[in-house]
């Protein structure tokens, strides 16, 4: 779905608009009314809104200029156009919603949870369509480009100082709520960017790998890859199996292995995204 929309001439801008709308809802209806400055330019704008009385969206637009220029130089002119578009759309939508919408809650815990998830989901959609809304989410993309860390982790690092400032201006309790919101935003961004962990990868080390692989193929209808390995303590050569299954199939896989070899060594880990036969097709990316 993502790839189909992105390939349309205006599809990426429609995706960026939708992401900006989600982010604006999170800011205007949850975070700003409850004085939760969950990092970044939006957090600084929230602090300035209560200290100086300036509009949140307009302040975000002004503060984004230096980061926009940096992004234009490092990430390219085409990305810069999308960043400018996302920055303006988010600023306008945020001020519009602050003006016309009534916040659904003034409970800071609920506001931090729903505000963090909505803003994170919105930013993740914007990133997925190759854009940015400026602010420290742009800084996060710069970190990913230069330091090779995830966008969500980059955002978490760059926003920590802003939360500290908000704690000094407001109070430490609101800073703690802001930290919770920032964590949820970071997780939501990575979930949209990298997938939600719907699959599991299993590494199976056993003296009965051939029989285990055969049963996986016939009973689970899943492929298995054999990798030659050698135990450094025993110096024994053996075949290591790599298997990827849906979460619902993990229990069946473990029971199968336990039945054939109770002494097998099995490692099961989360997989964010799987492309290929039996999972998502490449054309869906």
TrEMBL record:
Subcellular location as annotated: Cell membrane
Name of the protein described by the UniProt record: Uncharacterized membrane-anchored protein YitT, contains DUF161 and DUF2179 domains
Organism: Thermanaeromonas toyohensis ToBE
Keywords for the protein's UniProt record, in alphabetical order: Cell membrane, Membrane, Transmembrane, Transmembrane helix
Membrane-spanning parts: 12-32, 52-72, 84-101, 113-131, 138-157
Topology versus the membrane: Multi-pass membrane protein
Domain DUF2179 as annotated: residue spans: 222-276
Entry's Gene Ontology cellular component terms: plasma membrane
UniProt cross-references to PANTHER family, sorted A to Z: UPF0750 MEMBRANE PROTEIN YITT, UPF0750 MEMBRANE PROTEIN YITT-RELATED
């Amino acid at each position: 779905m993502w790839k189909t929309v992105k390939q349309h001439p205006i599809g990426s801008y429609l995706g960026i608009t939708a992401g900006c709308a989600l982010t604006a809802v999170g800011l205007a209806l949850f975070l700003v009314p409850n004085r939760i400055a969950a990092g970044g330019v939006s957090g600084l704008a929230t602090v300035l809104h209560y200290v100086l009385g300036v509009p949140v969206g307009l302040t975000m637009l002004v503060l984004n200029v230096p980061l926009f220029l940096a992004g234009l130089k490092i990430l390219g002119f085409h990305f810069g156009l999308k960043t400018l578009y996302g920055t303006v759309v988010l600023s306008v939508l945020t001020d519009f919603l602050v003006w016309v919408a009534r916040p659904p809650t003034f409970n800071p815990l609920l506001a931090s949870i729903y505000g963090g998830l909505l803003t994170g989901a919105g930013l993740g959609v914007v990133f997925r369509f190759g854009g940015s809304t400026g602010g420290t989410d742009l800084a996060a993309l710069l970190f990913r480009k230069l330091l090779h860390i995830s966008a969500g982790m980059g955002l978490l690092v760059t926003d920590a100082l802003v939360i500290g400032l908000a704690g000094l201006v407001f109070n430490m309790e609101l800073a703690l709520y802001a930290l919770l919101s920032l964590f949820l935003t970071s997780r939501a961004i990575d979930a949209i960017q990298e997938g939600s962990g719907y699959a599991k990868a299993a590494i199976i080390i056993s003296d009965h790998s051939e029989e285990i692989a055969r049963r996986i193929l016939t009973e689970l209808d899943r492929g298995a890859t054999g990798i030659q390995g050698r135990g450094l303590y025993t110096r024994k050569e053996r075949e290591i199996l790599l298997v990827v299954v849906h979460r619902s199939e993990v229990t069946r896989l473990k029971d199968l292995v336990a039945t054939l070899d109770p002494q097998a060594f099995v490692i099961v880990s989360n997989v964010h995204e799987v492309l290929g036969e039996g999972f998502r097709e490449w054309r869906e990316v």
